[in-house]
Write a structure and sequence with these properties.
Length: about 260
């Protein structure tokens, strides 16, 4: 197994440099995909590159969405010989100190996708915490309970080929719909999944916290996405039922502390 950390970023300001530095403390191969950022955040990453030979920077010419940035990074990772990518958000929400745990699990189960399952602190916006249950419910229905602990949390390990196969099965999943749709599609592909409880931190504005989430726009996108996925689910239902009767996800019962 050869793993690279993949960090998509769009106008995350000084948080990007902090995220990259913390990631480099735990893993030497890191790729940052700037998705048309206009805030100059790439300069701090460029300064780090001479002292970190495993740090790569990819610049998208325009903002195409998180999914498009991850796709670009995954294609580059495969071309460079990496077999797995660990995706992290650039806004400081995902704990870099959890990287060794994800890597250890990926080495033990290289065929699996590892889904981070968020453990929220008291500062987490309740609208976001409660609202994601709806998407989680739909995602688990669409996969007949294959094993998606959280459909929206972005700290994950993917086998690169499985991730690319999921992307190639849809014209969508290029923006905010990426995390959920790809989670459903890797399950449809029969990729085993393991859920990893992972603390998540919501930074305040004073700490530099930024969010690209737009409540109306992104919830409309998720609604449209689940409508599409339900149509595909109905077409796949006989196969999914057959697979469920044969035992479903072989790693579903693995418990991660």
């Amino acid at each position: 197994m050869k793993l690279q950390i993949l960090i998509p970023s769009y106008n995350t300001g000084r948080l990007l440099a902090d995220t990259v530095l913390h990631a480099l403390e735990h893993w030497s191969d890191v790729c940052v995909v700037l998705d048309g950022s206009t805030d100059g955040s790439e300069k701090a990453v460029e300064v780090m590159q001479p002292s970190h030979p495993g740090l790569r920077l990819i610049k998208q010419p325009c903002n195409c969405g998180k999914g498009a940035a991850v796709l670009r990074g995954a294609e580059a990772a495969k071309a460079a010989g990496f077999t797995h990518v660990l995706t992290m958000d650039a806004d400081g929400q995902h704990p870099a100190e959890w990287i060794p745990k994800f890597v250890q699990l990926a080495e033990a189960h290289p065929q699996a996708v590892l889904f981070g399952k968020p453990v929220f602190g008291p500062e987490a916006p309740q609208l976001r915490v409660q609202g994601r249950r709806i998407s989680n419910g739909w995602a688990n229905l669409e996969t007949l309970g294959w094993g998606i602990g959280d459909s929206l949390f972005g700290m994950r390990v993917y086998p690169v080929q499985a991730l690319l196969d999921a992307f190639r099965s849809t014209w969508f999943a290029r923006r905010f719909d990426f995390d959920t749709e790809v989670a459903v599609r890797v399950c449809w592909l029969g990729v085993p999944t393991i859920n990893v409880p992972t603390p998540v931190r919501y930074l305040t504005q004073a700490e530099g916290g930024v969010s690209q989430f737009r409540y109306v726009r992104d919830n409309a996108l998720l609604t449209w996405m689940h409508a599409r996925l339900m149509i595909s689910f109905m077409l796949r239902l006989p196969f999914l039922l057959w697979r469920a009767l044969r035992g479903g996800n072989p790693l579903k019962n693995i418990v991660v502390d």
